[in-house]
Design goal:
The chain is mainly α. Helices cover 64% and strands 4% of the residues.
Length: 636
C-alpha cells in the first residue's frame, strides 16, 4: 500500500487539473500511458474551466455595462439638485465656446474647475446635440472606469474570484450607483480618488521592508513575516528581507510613485482640493507610521511639481479672464471658504453665483454615522463584518494597516470641515469594497474551517438583498400606479425561490455569490428600466419649458431666479440667456409695457404677488405635468 502523496506528487496533480505544463513533459523520458490519460483528462477539464470562466467574465461585464449605461442615463431628464448646474455650464460651452471659465447665463461660475463640464461638453459635441443623457453620460462612464480600477486592484491583491465579488458589491451600493448616474463633479472626483488609492495600493507589495506577493490563493499568508516586519514598531527587518537598496532602488520607487502623483495633481480639476482632503491624510499617516519619511517627502515634492505644471495653465487663463479676483474665488472662497466658516466677508467682492460663504453649513444630529451607514446599503452586514475582522483581526500587513488608516482618516478629515454633506463621504465605499475583498479572500481560503459567524453574515445579507430586490417592483408599482412593475414581482419571486432551494447551506460559496449577483442585477435592471421614466414624469422640469418654448419668440425673457439650479435649467431648455431682474417689484411694471416680454418666476413668488398681478393684463402658464415649480408670465 502506498503512503501519503509527497508534496511533489500533489503539485503534479494540481498542474494536471488546471492544465499547467505536465511534469512528464519536463523530463527526458516520454510520458507513460497512464500519465498521458491523466494529461488529456486534465487538459479537458482545464478547457471546460476556461470556457466557464470566459462565460462568467462576459456575463459579469455585460451586467455592469447594462446597469450603468442601459438604465439611468438616457431615460430621464435633468434631476435636481446638481444636474441643472452642469447642464447650464455645458450649454454655455456648447453655445459660446467658453471652456476655461465655467459660466451660467454668462456669469462666471467658479465653484468647481471645468473638467466635469468639459467632459459633458465633449459628450454633446460628439453626439452633435445637447441632451440630458449626453450631459450625464460622462458620470456613468466614470462609474464604469471606477469599477474597472477596483476590479484591477482587487484582482492584483486577492485574485479574480474575489475581485468580481468586491466590484459587484461596490457597483450595487445604492449611494455609489446613484452618484455615478448624476451629471456632477462628484462623480469625476470619486473616480480620481479611487484611481489614486489604487495606484498607491499597487506600490505596497513592492515595499522593500514588507514585500507581499500579488494574490494567488496563499499570498497573504506567505508574506506574513515580511508584512509584520513593516508594521511593528522599532524592530529589525526579517532576516529573509533584503536590505534597502540605494540609488537604483530609489529611482525605481520614484517611478512607481509617479503615476500616483500625476493622478493626484490632475484630480484638482475635478473638485478643487476636495480630492486632496480625502487622499493625502491617509497616505501621509501611513508613510509616517511605517517610517518612510524620505518617500513621503519625495511624493509631496513630486505631487507639488505636477500640480504646478498641470494647474498652472488654467490659473494663467483665469488670471487673463478675471485677474486676481478669479484666482481668489477658486483658491480661497471655494476651498477655505467651504472648509471653514468665515463670519465677516464684507471686504471681499462676492459674485452673484459665488455661494461659498453664504451656503448654509448645517450639521444634522448623528450626520456622520447616518451617512457612512447609508454608504453600506444594501450590504451592511458584509461591510460591518469585514470591518470587524479588519480592526480586531490578528493578521498584520501593509494594506490592512492602510485600510484602517484610510477608513478613519476620511471620516475625521470630513468631520472637521464646516461644509459636510452626505456625498462627501462616498469614497468610503471604495475602502469598504477592498475591506470586503479581504474578508472574502480569508473566507474562501479557510473553507470549511471558516468561522460560523462569517458564513451567517454572508447568508443573511444575501438573503435580505435577494428578498428586497424581489419585492422592489411590487413596491414601486404600487407607489407609481403601474401594473407592469407589479407583475414584474412574479418572476422575481420565482427566481428568489429557486435560489433559496439551490443554495441552501451554500450561501458563502463563490457560486452562490455569483448566482445571487446575476439575479439581483437582472431584477434591478428591469425594475429601473420601467420605474425611472415613471419617476421622471413626476420630477422632470422639461414639460414646463416645452409648453412655453413656443411663447418666447419675439419676446425679451426676464427672471428674478438668480441661482445655480433654476437659472441654468432655463438656459439649457430654452436655449437662450435670460435677463436678470434684481428687484422682483419690477415684474408688474414690465408686464404693463407695450413691448412683448416674458418673465419666469417661481410658483411661490407668483402666489405671493397674485393680487398685484390681477390688476395687470397678463397670461400665466404653469406646468401641466412634471414638476410644478415655475410660472411663465407674458403680456398681451
Amino acid at each position: 500500500m502506498s503512503g501519503p502523496a509527497s508534496p511533489q506528487e500533489r503539485e503534479t496533480r494540481f498542474e494536471l487539473t488546471v492544465g499547467a505544463p505536465r511534469a512528464a513533459d519536463r523530463g527526458p523520458n516520454p510520458p507513460s500511458g497512464e500519465a498521458m490519460r491523466e494529461s488529456i483528462s486534465g487538459d479537458g477539464r482545464g478547457e471546460a474551466r476556461r470556457g466557464r470562466l470566459a462565460l462568467r467574465r462576459a456575463l459579469g461585464a455585460s451586467l455592469f455595462v447594462g446597469l450603468y449605461l442601459v438604465v439611468g442615463v438616457f431615460d430621464h431628464e435633468l434631476w435636481p439638485p446638481i444636474e441643472q448646474a452642469v447642464a447650464g455650464v455645458t450649454w454655455e460651452m456648447y453655445t459660446y465656446g467658453e471652456i476655461a471659465v465655467p459660466k451660467i447665463n454668462g456669469i462666471p461660475y467658479l465653484e468647481k474647475p471645468p473638467l466635469a463640464y468639459a467632459l459633458s461638453w465633449v459628450s454633446c459635441k460628439i453626439a452633435g446635440r445637447l441632451s440630458a443623457g449626453f450631459v450625464r453620460l460622462p458620470a456613468a462612464l466614470c462609474g464604469l472606469l471606477s469599477l474597472s480600477i477596483l476590479f484591477w486592484i482587487s484582482r492584483r491583491l486577492y485574485g479574480e474570484a474575489v475581485a468580481w465579488i468586491s466590484t459587484y458589491l461596490c457597483a450595487t451600493t445604492f449611494t455609489f450607483y446613484d452618484m455615478m448616474h448624476r451629471a456632477s463633479s462628484d462623480s469625476v472626483a470619486l473616480f480620481f480618488i479611487i484611481l489614486c488609492f489604487a495606484l498607491f495600493l499597487r506600490t505596497l507589495h513592492g515595499d522593500s521592508r514588507g514585500q507581499t506577493t500579488p494574490a494567488d490563493g496563499n499570498a497573504p499568508r506567505a508574506a506574513s513575516r515580511a508584512e509584520q516586519a513593516l508594521t511593528s514598531q522599532g524592530h529589525e527587518k526579517a532576516s529573509a528581507t533584503p536590505p534597502i537598496q540605494t540609488q537604483p532602488r530609489s529611482q525605481g520607487r520614484w517611478l512607481e510613485d509617479l503615476p500616483f502623483c500625476l493622478a493626484l495633481a490632475a484630480s484638482f480639476y475635478a473638485k478643487n482640493f476636495y480630492t486632496f482632503l480625502i487622499i493625502v491624510p491617509p497616505v501621509t499617516v501611513f508613510l509616517l507610521m511605517t517610517r518612510q519619511f524620505y518617500r513621503l517627502f519625495r511624493i509631496g515634492a513630486t505631487a507639488g511639481v505636477a500640480l504646478a505644471l498641470l494647474v498652472g495653465p488654467w490659473c494663467y487663463a483665469l488670471y487673463v479672464k478675471g485677474g486676481l479676483e478669479f484666482l481668489r474665488i477658486v483658491f480661497f472662497d471655494n476651498t477655505l471658504g467651504r472648509f471653514f466658516t468665515f463670519r465677516d466677508t464684507t471686504a471681499l467682492h462676492i459674485g452673484e453665483l459665488n455661494d461659498a460663504f453664504r451656503t448654509v453649513k448645517t450639521r444634522p444630529p448623528f450626520g456622520v454615522a447616518r451617512w457612512v451607514s447609508a454608504d453600506m446599503l444594501p450590504w451592511p452586514l458584509i461591510y460591518l463584518g469585514a470591518l470587524w475582522d479588519l480592526f480586531l483581526g490578528r493578521r498584520v500587513c501593509p494594506r490592512r494597516l492602510f485600510f484602517k488608516i484610510a477608513f478613519i482618516a476620511i471620516i475625521v478629515s470630513l468631520s472637521l470641515s464646516s461644509s459636510t454633506q452626505m456625498t462627501y463621504f462616498l469614497p468610503i465605499v471604495f475602502v469598504l469594497s477592498l475591506v470586503s475583498a479581504e474578508f472574502f479572500h480569508d473566507l474562501f481560503a479557510q473553507g470549511a474551517r471558516s468561522t460560523r459567524r462569517k458564513r451567517q453574515l454572508v447568508a443573511l445579507n444575501l438573503a435580505l438583498v435577494v428578498v428586497g430586490f424581489a419585492l422592489a417592483p411590487l413596491g414601486a408599482g404600487l407607489v407609481l400606479h403601474n401594473q407592469t412593475l407589479v407583475w414584474l414581482f412574479a418572476p422575481n419571486l420565482v427566481a428568489a425561490a429557486v435560489l433559496f432551494v439551490i443554495l441552501k447551506g451554500r450561501w458563502h460559496e463563490e457560486l452562490a455569490l455569483w448566482m445571487c449577483g446575476v439575479v439581483i442585477a437582472c431584477s434591478a435592471l428591469f425594475t429601473l428600466a420601467f420605474a425611472i421614466p415613471l419617476i421622471d414624469n413626476l420630477r422632470s422640469w422639461r414639460p414646463f419649458f416645452d409648453q412655453v418654448r413656443s411663447e418666447i419668440d419675439g419676446r425679451r425673457i426676464f427672471t428674478p431666479l438668480l441661482n445655480d439650479r433654476r437659472l441654468p435649467a432655463m438656459n439649457f431648455y430654452l436655449d437662450r440667456r435670460l435677463e436678470i431682474l434684481k428687484d422682483p417689484d419690477q415684474i408688474p411694471l414690465l408686464l404693463g409695457l407695450p413691448e412683448k416680454v416674458g418673465i419666469v418666476v417661481s410658483v411661490d413668488d407668483y402666489n405671493e404677488q397674485r393680487d398685484r398681478f390681477a390688476t395687470i393684463p397678463h397670461r400665466a402658464i404653469r406646468a401641466s405635468k412634471g414638476a410644478d415649480l415655475f410660472v411663465f408670465l407674458e403680456n398681451p
